[in-house]
Protein backbone atom coordinates (compact mmCIF):
# COMPACT_ATOMS: atom_id res chain seq x y z
CA UNK A 1 0.00 0.00 0.00
CA UNK A 2 1.47 3.39 -1.04
CA UNK A 3 1.05 6.81 0.54
CA UNK A 4 -1.04 9.16 -1.61
CA UNK A 5 -1.45 12.58 -0.01
CA UNK A 6 -0.78 13.80 3.50
CA UNK A 7 -4.03 14.29 5.41
CA UNK A 8 -2.72 15.66 8.69
CA UNK A 9 0.56 16.07 10.45
CA UNK A 10 0.76 16.19 14.22
CA UNK A 11 3.66 16.76 16.58
CA UNK A 12 5.08 13.22 16.20
CA UNK A 13 3.03 11.43 13.52
CA UNK A 14 1.67 12.11 10.04
CA UNK A 15 -1.34 10.52 8.35
CA UNK A 16 -1.55 9.78 4.63
CA UNK A 17 -4.41 8.67 2.41
CA UNK A 18 -4.10 5.42 0.44
CA UNK A 19 -5.85 3.91 -2.56
CA UNK A 20 -8.28 2.35 -0.07
CA UNK A 21 -10.84 4.98 1.11
CA UNK A 22 -11.14 3.42 4.60
CA UNK A 23 -7.43 2.97 5.26
CA UNK A 24 -4.64 5.41 6.15
CA UNK A 25 -0.90 5.17 6.60
CA UNK A 26 0.31 6.41 9.96
CA UNK A 27 3.95 7.47 9.91
CA UNK A 28 5.81 7.79 13.19
CA UNK A 29 8.44 10.53 12.88
CA UNK A 30 11.52 11.09 15.05
CA UNK A 31 10.05 14.42 16.21
CA UNK A 32 9.42 14.54 19.94
CA UNK A 33 7.37 17.20 21.65
CA UNK A 34 6.35 18.10 25.18
CA UNK A 35 4.37 20.81 26.93
CA UNK A 36 1.82 21.10 24.08
CA UNK A 37 4.57 21.56 21.49
CA UNK A 38 6.62 24.15 23.40
CA UNK A 39 9.61 21.75 23.63
CA UNK A 40 10.53 19.98 20.36
CA UNK A 41 13.46 17.80 19.29
CA UNK A 42 14.12 15.02 16.77
CA UNK A 43 15.45 11.85 18.44
CA UNK A 44 17.14 9.25 16.21
CA UNK A 45 15.09 6.07 15.78
CA UNK A 46 12.12 7.28 17.81
CA UNK A 47 9.79 6.79 14.83
CA UNK A 48 10.97 3.20 14.38
CA UNK A 49 10.77 2.31 18.05
CA UNK A 50 7.35 3.88 18.63
CA UNK A 51 5.79 2.43 15.47
CA UNK A 52 6.82 -1.11 16.36
CA UNK A 53 6.04 -0.63 20.07
CA UNK A 54 2.56 0.61 19.17
CA UNK A 55 1.96 -2.33 16.80
CA UNK A 56 2.92 -4.80 19.53
CA UNK A 57 0.62 -3.24 22.15
CA UNK A 58 -2.31 -2.72 19.75
CA UNK A 59 -2.09 -6.36 18.58
CA UNK A 60 -1.88 -7.52 22.19
CA UNK A 61 -4.95 -5.46 23.18
CA UNK A 62 -6.87 -6.86 20.18
CA UNK A 63 -6.17 -10.42 21.40
CA UNK A 64 -7.76 -9.37 24.72
CA UNK A 65 -10.93 -8.05 23.06
CA UNK A 66 -10.13 -4.32 22.73
CA UNK A 67 -10.71 -3.50 19.06
CA UNK A 68 -8.28 -1.00 17.54
CA UNK A 69 -7.65 0.90 14.31
CA UNK A 70 -4.35 -0.94 13.72
CA UNK A 71 -4.26 -3.20 10.64
CA UNK A 72 -0.59 -4.06 10.00
CA UNK A 73 2.99 -2.85 10.06
CA UNK A 74 4.12 -1.55 6.66
CA UNK A 75 7.72 -0.59 7.44
CA UNK A 76 9.92 0.19 10.42
CA UNK A 77 8.15 3.53 10.98
CA UNK A 78 4.80 3.16 9.17
CA UNK A 79 1.57 1.29 9.94
CA UNK A 80 -1.66 0.77 8.05
CA UNK A 81 -4.69 1.84 10.11
CA UNK A 82 -8.44 2.20 9.65
CA UNK A 83 -9.71 5.70 8.91
CA UNK A 84 -11.85 6.77 11.88
CA UNK A 85 -14.03 9.71 12.81
CA UNK A 86 -12.09 10.83 15.86
CA UNK A 87 -13.47 12.27 19.10
CA UNK A 88 -11.57 15.44 20.15
CA UNK A 89 -11.07 13.85 23.56
CA UNK A 90 -8.19 12.34 25.52
CA UNK A 91 -8.99 9.60 28.04
CA UNK A 92 -6.51 9.31 30.90
CA UNK A 93 -6.28 6.59 33.54
CA UNK A 94 -3.99 7.00 36.52
CA UNK A 95 -2.81 4.17 38.80
CA UNK A 96 -0.40 6.48 40.66
CA UNK A 97 -0.63 10.23 41.18
CA UNK A 98 1.93 12.26 39.27
CA UNK A 99 2.14 14.91 36.53
CA UNK A 100 -0.76 17.29 36.05
CA UNK A 101 -2.89 15.64 38.75
CA UNK A 102 -0.37 16.51 41.48
CA UNK A 103 -0.05 20.09 40.22
CA UNK A 104 -3.82 20.56 39.97
CA UNK A 105 -4.84 19.07 43.32
CA UNK A 106 -1.65 19.19 45.44
CA UNK A 107 -1.57 15.38 45.71
CA UNK A 108 1.62 13.64 46.88
CA UNK A 109 3.67 12.34 43.91
CA UNK A 110 3.55 8.55 43.60
CA UNK A 111 0.39 8.03 45.70
CA UNK A 112 -1.28 4.73 44.71
CA UNK A 113 -4.77 5.34 43.29
CA UNK A 114 -7.12 2.48 44.06
CA UNK A 115 -9.48 2.38 42.27
CA UNK A 116 -7.63 3.90 39.31
CA UNK A 117 -8.63 7.47 38.51
CA UNK A 118 -10.21 8.26 35.13
CA UNK A 119 -10.20 11.74 33.55
CA UNK A 120 -11.35 13.27 30.25
CA UNK A 121 -9.35 16.09 28.61
CA UNK A 122 -10.22 18.18 25.56
CA UNK A 123 -7.70 17.64 22.76
CA UNK A 124 -6.77 21.25 22.10
CA UNK A 125 -3.13 22.34 22.29
CA UNK A 126 -4.01 26.04 22.10
CA UNK A 127 -6.05 25.64 25.31
CA UNK A 128 -3.45 23.32 26.92
CA UNK A 129 -5.72 20.22 26.73
CA UNK A 130 -8.06 21.27 29.61
CA UNK A 131 -9.75 18.83 32.01
CA UNK A 132 -13.42 18.31 31.06
CA UNK A 133 -16.27 16.07 32.22
CA UNK A 134 -19.19 14.21 30.62
CA UNK A 135 -21.38 17.32 30.78
CA UNK A 136 -18.94 19.34 28.67
CA UNK A 137 -18.71 16.45 26.21
CA UNK A 138 -22.47 16.14 25.76
CA UNK A 139 -23.35 19.87 25.92
CA UNK A 140 -20.75 20.81 23.31
CA UNK A 141 -21.56 17.79 21.11
CA UNK A 142 -18.06 16.28 21.23
CA UNK A 143 -19.66 12.85 21.84
CA UNK A 144 -22.95 11.43 23.17
CA UNK A 145 -23.32 10.27 26.78
CA UNK A 146 -23.31 6.67 25.56
CA UNK A 147 -20.09 7.26 23.61
CA UNK A 148 -18.46 8.94 26.63
CA UNK A 149 -19.48 5.95 28.77
CA UNK A 150 -17.99 3.53 26.22
CA UNK A 151 -14.70 5.49 26.08
CA UNK A 152 -14.43 5.35 29.87
CA UNK A 153 -15.30 1.62 30.00
CA UNK A 154 -12.81 0.69 27.25
CA UNK A 155 -10.03 2.79 28.81
CA UNK A 156 -10.55 1.17 32.22
CA UNK A 157 -10.82 -2.29 30.63
CA UNK A 158 -7.50 -1.65 28.85
CA UNK A 159 -6.03 -0.65 32.23
CA UNK A 160 -6.68 -4.07 33.78
CA UNK A 161 -4.97 -5.72 30.81
CA UNK A 162 -2.03 -3.30 30.56
CA UNK A 163 -1.23 -3.10 34.29
CA UNK A 164 -0.52 -6.87 34.22
CA UNK A 165 1.22 -6.71 30.84
CA UNK A 166 3.74 -4.13 32.10
CA UNK A 167 3.99 -5.68 35.56
CA UNK A 168 5.40 -8.84 33.96
CA UNK A 169 8.19 -6.66 32.55
CA UNK A 170 8.87 -5.31 36.08
CA UNK A 171 7.22 -1.99 35.22
CA UNK A 172 4.51 0.04 36.95
CA UNK A 173 1.97 1.48 34.51
CA UNK A 174 1.59 4.83 36.27
CA UNK A 175 -0.81 6.53 33.83
CA UNK A 176 -1.59 6.79 30.13
CA UNK A 177 -3.72 8.54 27.54
CA UNK A 178 -5.96 6.87 24.95
CA UNK A 179 -7.95 8.29 22.05
CA UNK A 180 -10.95 6.77 20.32
CA UNK A 181 -12.85 7.12 17.05
CA UNK A 182 -15.77 5.58 15.20
CA UNK A 183 -15.48 3.14 12.29
CA UNK A 184 -18.63 1.81 10.63
CA UNK A 185 -20.73 2.40 13.78
CA UNK A 186 -18.20 0.85 16.17
CA UNK A 187 -15.89 2.57 18.64
CA UNK A 188 -12.23 1.62 18.14
CA UNK A 189 -9.06 2.47 20.04
CA UNK A 190 -7.07 4.88 17.86
CA UNK A 191 -3.88 6.95 17.87
CA UNK A 192 -1.04 5.13 19.64
CA UNK A 193 0.11 3.38 22.77
CA UNK A 194 3.83 4.07 23.23
CA UNK A 195 6.08 5.42 26.00
CA UNK A 196 5.28 8.87 24.57
CA UNK A 197 1.72 8.70 25.91
CA UNK A 198 2.11 6.77 29.14
CA UNK A 199 4.25 6.78 32.26
CA UNK A 200 6.20 3.65 33.19
CA UNK A 201 8.33 3.34 36.32
CA UNK A 202 10.76 0.53 37.04
CA UNK A 203 9.21 -1.52 39.86
CA UNK A 204 12.43 -1.79 41.88
CA UNK A 205 14.02 1.62 41.42
CA UNK A 206 10.98 3.74 40.35
CA UNK A 207 13.21 5.05 37.50
CA UNK A 208 11.21 6.84 34.80
CA UNK A 209 11.11 4.77 31.57
CA UNK A 210 8.87 7.03 29.42
CA UNK A 211 8.57 10.49 27.88
CA UNK A 212 9.23 12.12 31.26
CA UNK A 213 12.90 11.38 30.38
CA UNK A 214 12.49 13.90 27.54
CA UNK A 215 10.20 16.30 29.43
CA UNK A 216 12.61 16.44 32.40
CA UNK A 217 15.89 16.27 30.39
CA UNK A 218 16.88 12.96 32.02
CA UNK A 219 18.63 11.70 28.84
CA UNK A 220 18.77 8.24 27.19
CA UNK A 221 15.18 8.61 25.93
CA UNK A 222 15.29 6.15 23.04
CA UNK A 223 17.66 3.76 24.82
CA UNK A 224 15.10 3.58 27.64
CA UNK A 225 12.13 3.07 25.27
CA UNK A 226 14.14 0.26 23.66
CA UNK A 227 14.82 -1.32 27.04
CA UNK A 228 11.07 -1.31 27.80
CA UNK A 229 10.41 -2.91 24.40
CA UNK A 230 13.04 -5.57 25.05
CA UNK A 231 11.65 -6.36 28.51
CA UNK A 232 8.22 -6.88 26.87
CA UNK A 233 9.76 -9.32 24.39
CA UNK A 234 9.67 -7.07 21.31
CA UNK A 235 12.32 -7.25 18.62
CA UNK A 236 12.57 -3.74 17.24
CA UNK A 237 14.05 -3.29 13.74
CA UNK A 238 16.04 -0.10 13.19
CA UNK A 239 16.82 1.30 9.70
P1 LIG B 1 -0.67 14.47 32.61
O1 LIG B 1 -2.14 14.82 32.68
O2 LIG B 1 -0.09 14.11 33.93
O3 LIG B 1 0.13 15.49 31.86
O4 LIG B 1 -0.59 13.15 31.69
C1 LIG B 1 -1.20 11.94 32.09
C2 LIG B 1 -0.77 10.83 31.14
O5 LIG B 1 -1.38 11.04 29.84
C3 LIG B 1 0.73 10.77 30.87
O6 LIG B 1 1.09 9.41 30.70
C4 LIG B 1 0.93 11.53 29.56
O7 LIG B 1 2.03 11.02 28.83
C5 LIG B 1 -0.39 11.24 28.84
N1 LIG B 1 -0.84 12.41 28.07
C6 LIG B 1 -1.74 13.34 28.41
N2 LIG B 1 -1.90 14.24 27.42
C7 LIG B 1 -1.07 13.87 26.44
C8 LIG B 1 -0.79 14.42 25.14
O8 LIG B 1 -1.35 15.41 24.70
N3 LIG B 1 0.15 13.75 24.41
C9 LIG B 1 0.79 12.63 24.88
N4 LIG B 1 1.72 12.04 24.10
N5 LIG B 1 0.52 12.08 26.08
C10 LIG B 1 -0.39 12.70 26.85
Key features?
239 residues; alpha+beta; Phosphorylase Kinase, domain 1; D-amino Acid Aminotransferase, Chain A, domain 1; 2 domains; 5-stranded antiparallel sheet; 6 helices; globular; binds guanosine-5'-monophosphate
Detailed description of the structure:
With 239 residues, the chain is of the alpha+beta class. It folds into 2 domains: 6-82, Phosphorylase Kinase, domain 1; 85-220, D-amino Acid Aminotransferase, Chain A, domain 1 (2-Layer Sandwich). It is built from 6 helices and 15 strands. It has helices spanning 46-63, 99-105, 134-139, 145-167, 212-215, 221-231, and strands spanning 6-9, 13-17, 23-28, 31-34, 39-42, 70-75, 78-82, 85-86, 89-96, 112-122, 131-132, 171-178, 180-183, 186-189, 198-202. Strands 1-2-3-7-6 form a 5-stranded antiparallel beta sheet. A 5-stranded antiparallel beta sheet has the order 11-10-9-12-15. A hairpin with a 2-residue loop joins strand 6 and strand 7 (78-82). Helix 1 (46-63) packs parallel to helix 6. The longest helix has 23 residues, at 145-167. It is globular and about 50 Å long. The model has no long low-confidence stretch (mean pLDDT 97). The structure holds guanosine-5'-monophosphate (5GP). Residues 90, 92, 99-101, 129, 175-177, 196-199, 211 line the site of guanosine-5'-monophosphate.
Amino acid sequence: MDKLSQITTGKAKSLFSTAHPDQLIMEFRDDTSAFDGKKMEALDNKGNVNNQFNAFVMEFLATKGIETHFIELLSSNESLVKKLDMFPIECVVRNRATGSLCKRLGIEDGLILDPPLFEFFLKDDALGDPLINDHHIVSFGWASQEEADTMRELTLQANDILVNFFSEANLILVDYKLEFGMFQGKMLLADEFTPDGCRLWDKDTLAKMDKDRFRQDLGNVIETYSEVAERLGMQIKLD
